[in-house]
Design brief:
Layout: E1 16-19, E2 28-31, E3 45-46, E4 57-68, E5 74-82, E6 93-97, E7 101-108, E8 125-126, E9 129-130, E10 134-135, E11 141-143, E12 153-160, E13 165-170, H1 175-181, E14 184-190, E15 221-229, H2 231-238, E16 252-255, E17 281-284, E18 296-302, E19 308-312, E20 317-322, E21 325-326, E22 337-339, E23 342-344, E24 349-354, E25 409-415, E26 422-423, E27 426-427, E28 432-438
Length: 446
């Protein structure tokens, strides 16, 4: 289900884009949003630049391109790219702090108008005036917000980032087409200060929201962005033909823009040039004896059209926020709750804190109470080290290959609507990933 983040970002070349100022007679140029080389696994943030630390500017360009699917097909997609970079899917992960004045400059290269809405953010401006739905003379809505015109039009959105949490950003123009074609991404708002009652010496980035009990380990922060594709709709758009939405039926379901097994490849995998975000989790065993050890955190987002019951094996999670709002009562009482499967509805986001540890303290001296079957009755997978004990590797039967480096565990995480873990009928693909648990340090893991 997850990944390990080290607050690094995708490397983007420094670019210049035009910022059209309302009422201005000249064009002002600002650097494009940049990002550093990402960690091998984890959330790869794109951080805005320009204006100052608390006034990040992001430059997004609508582009078209193709992604690879697990059954060997490709899909024609639309997407937001960073600056003038090439097409990517999904859009960049925009990371800001609560209270920042955020500017997003959209340049639209599509043959129809496009836009961005920011669910959960208030008082959004478009070219300096309040963003608002666009209507025809007859009163029909053509866009949920001010769009950028086709063929190179621009629009500048700005807002003050609200409550810390996880949000979507997506097209507000013809969303039943444009969002499904790929015009979406994740917006992460972090606390700007350590919450009241937070741990001495801790950083604001260690908290999911403004509650002191939302602290997590930033090195174990993950994103689960779930989406879907109807290839017939995408084929129709590619060929500039109409598509009857009454016939809409997804055949592919993705996690972070990939399907399994590509989902467990590294961030920025070279054979997935337009799909930069992996979904493999890599965590260490939670040390219950160490008060300084903190749990991991998963940020779930659903940009699809139906519920996605995501199902991480091996651990429960504590739901601390939904839709960018901490789960608390009117007087601040804690309303978080424990959950095994996370059932994310369309357009929802969930923030979940979790920890993995060996509750039974199994070891060769405290063996797992199970009878190991005869070799002829066993099916040994590539994620098995030959031993049921964390950190232990044993000799495997001849002809068996394993990907284990150091006796780590691999625990599957997947969408529990099982018909959705296929790729047009190819089973055990789609929104599936693994959580990798490394043995306690020191270890010989790579």
């Amino acid at each position: 289900m997850l990944w390990k983040a080290r607050n690094r970002r995708l490397r983007r070349p420094t670019l210049l884009v035009a910022l059209a100022l309302v009422g201005a007679t000249m064009t002002t140029f600002v650097p494009a949003a940049t990002a550093e080389t990402p960690s091998r696994v984890g959330i790869a943030c794109t951080t805005g630049v320009g204006g100052g630390v608390t006034t990040p500017i992001f430059n997004l360009t609508t582009k078209t391109g193709y992604i690879s699917l697990p059954d060997g097909n490709t899909a024609f997609m639309w997407g937001y790219s960073s600056g003038f970079d090439g097409f990517q899917h999904p859009g960049p992960v925009l990371c800001v702090n609560s209270g920042d004045t955020v500017t997003v400059i959209l340049r639209n290269t599509l043959t129809e108008a496009a836009s961005i809405v920011f669910p959960g953010q208030t008082n959004v401006l478009a070219d300096g005036i309040p963003a608002q739905p666009q209507l025809t003379g007859a009163g029909a809505i053509t866009s949920l917000t001010n769009p950028a015109a086709a063929g190179g039009g621009t629009v500048t959105y700005s807002f003050v980032a609200g409550d810390p949490g996880t949000y979507l950003y997506e097209s507000g123009t013809n969303p039943e087409k444009q969002v499904r074609m790929g015009l979406f991404g994740a917006l992460i708002v972090r606390p700007s200060v350590v919450p009241a009652g937070g741990a001495v010496g801790s950083a604001a980035s260690e908290y999911a929201n403004n509650r002191a009990d939302s602290r997590f380990n930033p090195a174990e922060e993950f994103m689960v962005l779930l989406s879907e594709i109807d290839p017939y709709q995408h084929q129709a758009v590619e060929n500039n033909k109409s598509f009857n939405l009454n016939n809409y039926h997804p055949r592919y379901w993705l996690i972070n823009g990939r399907g399994f097994p590509d989902s467990i490849a590294d961030n920025g995998a070279s054979w997935l040039p337009t799909q930069p975000y992996g979904a493999l989790a890599q965590v260490g065993e939670f040390n219950r004896a160490d008060p300084a050890d903190q749990p991991g955190m998963a940020r779930y987002l659903n940009v699809g059209t139906e519920d996605y019951p995501f199902h991480p094996h091996g651990n429960n999670g504590l739901v601390v926020a939904r839709d960018g709002r901490a789960l608390e009562g009117p007087t601040g009482e804690d309303l978080s709750f424990e959950k095994f499967a996370i059932n994310i509805g369309p357009g929802q986001t969930w923030d979940v804190i979790f920890k993995w540890y060996d509750a039974e303290s199994y070891s060769p001296s405290n063996p797992v109470p199970v009878t190991v079957p005869q070799l002829a009755n066993e099916s040994i997978g590539v994620f098995y080290s030959g031993s049921p004990y964390l950190g232990t590797k044993e000799t495997l039967p001849p002809g068996i290959q394993s990907v284990n480096q150091c006796g780590e565990y691999y625990i599957i995480s997947h969408n529990h609507a099982l018909f959705q873990i296929t790729s047009w009928g190819t089973n055990m693909t789609g929104p599936i990933t693994y959580m990798r648990i490394d043995p306690p340090t020191p270890n010989n893991c790579g």
